[in-house]
Each structure stands twice: as C-alpha cells, then as structure tokens.
Automatic annotation (TrEMBL):
GO molecular function (one): N-acetylmuramoyl-L-alanine amidase activity
Domain of life: Bacteria
Domain N-acetylmuramoyl-L-alanine amidase per the UniProt entry, residue ranges: 47-137
Name of the protein in question: N-acetylmuramoyl-L-alanine amidase
GO biological process: peptidoglycan catabolic process
InterPro entries: Amidase/PGRP_sf, Amidase_domain
Species in which this protein is naturally found: Dendrosporobacter quercicolus
Length: 189
C-alpha cells in the first residue's frame, strides 16, 4: 500500500485509461467507478480495491496499474476502478454506522477522487457510471446481466454508502457523493 497525492492519481488514471476502456468495451460495458466502505477499521487497508481512503482523507494505492483485476464488486470487476473508504466497522443500519463511521475528511477525499477519475477516464458523474456498492448490488444502473440483486432493496448483503451519515435518508449516499464529486469536477480541487 503506497500513499499518493491527487496529482499522481491523475497520472495513474491517465496511464490506465486505454486498457480500462478496451476491457469494458469488450464485455459491452462502460468504465465504471465503484465506491465502497470496507466495513473494517479506520487503519485497515485492503488489496481488493485499487484505492483506499484513510480516516483523514489520505489516499493509498494497492497497485500502480488500475487495470489490475481486483475482486471488489461481484461480477462487476472488469473495466472498473474501485475506491474504498476505510471505515464502517460494525455498521448495522442506516441509523447506526458503528463506532468508526465515514469521516468528513474521508467523504471529501472520496469526492475529490471521483472528480479526478471521472475527468481523466472520461466518465460521467451519474448514477450509471459512478455507483456505490449498495447501488451496484441492486443493479440500479439497470444492467441486470451480471448478478441477482443483493443490495439494500433486496437481501441487504451489501449496502456500502446507502447513506453517508447515520440518520440520512436511505438511498441518499450515492447522490451525495456524486454531488460533491461534481462540485470538485467543476470548481477544482
Ligand atoms: Zn463493498
């Protein structure tokens, strides 16, 4: 796990773009960003994601090649970049995200990562291309070809960022993260 700044993130995304686009195209998809929480501790980082966001907004990469295949989002791993916030240990409901909920710094850093990757990889910041794991799990992009739904509207096996803060309206997490991402996209970092 190596700590990087946003400038380097942009460079890594630039290098990976042709490969990601080709892989996605070959299976009839577009390049996607998937947003996760780890359901682990603040200081725990995981190799299953390309980018880990720490408690204070620090960024870590598990690889320098975002084309590297990672197991992050069931049947949606190809042609995708995964970002995880290290948090949400023992999160049990939208009203209780546990003792280590997403921090403000983490949420802002996640939004900045969305902005940089969307710009560099030429991805629109919308609900089809930049998805939380909760949304992807329930196929909320309308693409039902890959797996049965297993998100908060069905089995709730995965519900990463269904909310950003405890007590938020269920399902609001994706729009909040994308909204913040759009702000950085248009206003700069
Ligand atoms: Zn996840």
């Amino acid at each position: 796990m190596r700590q990087i700044m946003l400038e380097e993130l942009e460079a890594l995304a630039e290098q990976a773009r042709p490969g990601l686009q080709k892989v996605a195209e070959n299976i009839g998809r577009t390049v996607k960003l998937y947003l996760h929480w780890s359901a682990g501790h603040y200081e725990q980082y995981f190799d299953d994601y390309h980018i880990n966001v720490g408690q204070n907004g620090e960024l870590f990469v598990s690889t320098d090649d975002f084309n590297e295949y990672k197991l992050h989002t069931y049947h949606r791993n190809s042609g995708a970049v995964s970002i995880v916030a290290a948090c949400a240990y023992n999160a049990c409901s939208v009203d209780d995200l546990g003792p280590e909920p997403p921090t403000d710094q983490q949420i802002e850093a996640l939004a900045q990562v969305i902005a940089v990757l969307a710009k560099t990889l030429d991805i629109p910041i919308d609900g089809k291309s930049v998805m939380t794991h909760a949304e992807a799990a329930d196929n909320l992009d309308g693409d039902t070809r890959w797996h049965e739904p297993y998100g908060p509207n069905t089995t709730t096996e995965r519900w990463d960022f269904w909310v950003v803060k405890a007590g938020d309206e269920p399902g609001s997490g994706g729009n909040i993260l994308r909204g913040k991402g759009l702000w950085y996209y248009y206003n700069g970092l």
